[in-house]
Design a protein that fits this description.
Pfam families: PA (PF02225). By secondary structure, the protein is α/β, with parallel strands linked by helices. The protein is 35% helix and 23% strand. The chain has helices at 9-12, 14-36, 122-130, 166-177, 199-251, and strands at 40-51, 57-68, 77-82, 111-116, 136-140, 160-164, 181-193, 253-256, 283-286. The strands form two sheets. A seven-stranded mixed barrel has the order 1-2-6-5-4-3-7. It has a two-stranded antiparallel ribbon with strand order 8-9. A hairpin with a 5-residue loop joins strand 1 and strand 2 (57-68). The chain is rod-shaped and about 140 Å long. The two termini are 40 Å apart.
Length: 290
């Protein structure tokens, strides 16, 4: 026989709905994890110390959201920060101009180039600073709405390359523009999975979760409405049956057991539900089966 629909049937399809919505996303997540796990993300803590005229520290800035480049040595580095020098009155903050140069003070052992992201590849920027014997390169982002990313710059040798946020880079640049000496130290931070997150995937997950919650809530509401309707219908049916039974019982004829009736005979076969034998003056109903 075909299966009848009941109040519990809608709820039984809820796991199927959840599976259909969640399973494709789970598969995508597994695939994404396999891709991400191939490359580790290495964070960097960048400490900037402002020195006075005597070389004593007077201000310290610290940020731990830097990111080592993919092809950079994951080692500590330090040195005086130097930004590109003006060329005919024009400063190329990105270090992409072929004539970009750095004014390194004499007897400077280690120094760190400060460049802005954009206009040319990371490799070109790093090689430009390496040509002036930079110990490390700090590249600050060009979008305040984006976090640091893991740069790809194959073929840059042993030069340490770290990306920092736009706000931090401009803060250090502002100190340099005030002719202040800034000493930077780069320290290796935690290793973990890559931080690059596809924003489209994040939006997709959020929308899918919201849709899933709406569908689940709708099914639950429908289920409880059906259950309440089923319960009310069952109660009405039971009440109707009870009223009909009372009316049927009320229509049965009755009589009083008297002396000499067969019910008073000790050998009388009493009904199966009777616990005690009939007594005189008992009122009994006469069933249709007599």
């Amino acid at each position: 026989m075909p299966k009848r629909w009941t109040a519990a049937t809608p709820c039984s399809y809820l796991p199927v709905v959840l599976l259909v919505l969640v399973l494709p996303r789970c598969i995508l997540s597994i695939r994404a994890d396999k891709i991400i796990s191939k490359e580790d993300h290495v964070s960097a803590t960048v400490n900037a110390t402002v020195l006075d005229s005597k070389g004593n520290p007077k201000q310290i800035l610290t940020k731990d959201d830097g990111t080592y480049g993919q092809n950079s040595p994951k080692v500590d580095a330090k040195g005086i920060v130097i930004a590109p020098a003006p060329n005919h009155g024009v400063v190329d903050r990105q270090g992409c101009d072929p004539h970009t140069r750095f004014m390194v003070p004499p007897r400077t052992g280690h120094w760190v180039a400060l460049l802005q992201r954009g206009n040319c590849t990371f490799k070109e920027k790093i090689l430009k600073a390496s040509a002036f014997n930079a110990s490390a390169v700090l590249i600050y982002n060009n979008n305040s709405n984006e976090d640091t990313v893991k740069m790809g710059h194959e073929g840059t040798g042993d030069t340490v390359a770290v990306m920092i946020t736009e706000s931090y880079g401009k803060e250090i640049l502002g100190l340099l523009e005030r002719n202040l000496t800034v000493l930077v130290s780069v320290v290796v931070g935690q290793r973990g999975q890559a931080k690059n997150i596809n924003r489209g995937s994040l939006v997709f997950v959020s929308v899918s979760f919201i849709v899933l919650m709406i569908v689940s809530s709708a099914w639950l509401i429908f289920y409880f409405i059906q259950k309440i309707r089923f319960t009310n219908a069952r109660d009405r049916s039971q009440r109707r049956l009870g009223d009909a039974a009372k009316k049927a019982i009320g229509k049965l004829t009755t009589r009083t057991v008297k002396k000499g009736d067969k019910e008073t005979d000790p050998d009388f076969n009493h009904c199966a539900v009777c616990i005690e034998g009939y007594q005189l003056n008992d009122v009994v109903r006469i069933l249709p089966c007599k």
